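=== RUN LOG ===
request id: a7f3
mode: sequence -> structure
chains: 1
length: 146
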Amino acid sequence: MIITAILSGTSFYKNRLPYLNFIKNEKVNGLIGLTPFKWIIMHSFFKYFNPMLSVTKKILANELGEYRLEMTKAELNHLFAFLFMMIFIVIKLSQGLYLFATVMLLVNILMNLYPSLLQQQNKRRIDRYLHIRNQRSLQNLVGQAG
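=== RESULT ===
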């Protein structure tokens, strides 16, 4: 969270990180189990961890930009936590503690990498919706002008 807060004022954060996508193909997301993971998040106590990204309230179209920014922060927090934990996993591997490193890796994937991938998937859905909405607005403007 500290790294995200430090980076949030930089142009790199504003221009590049909100559009970060590791897996763009929805079929690959399905193959790695992101759909069941999403279901678990939405139907368990995990949904209460970030009240800014609540799935219980209806999001209005004009709130999507702010909602997307919150998703980006949550995604980057998970991503930086994943990378931070990878340091300790590598240390445990170098110490020959393979089982411990494997358990840490699996927990790290479930608690940090998958949430980050889920946020990326949700941001892509928002982007598609906003794109369609913008296209319709442009068509309406053209229709009214002509």
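=== NOTES ===
Residues 98-145 form the longest helix (48 residues).
The CA atoms of residues 79 and 104 lie 15 Å apart.
=== END ===
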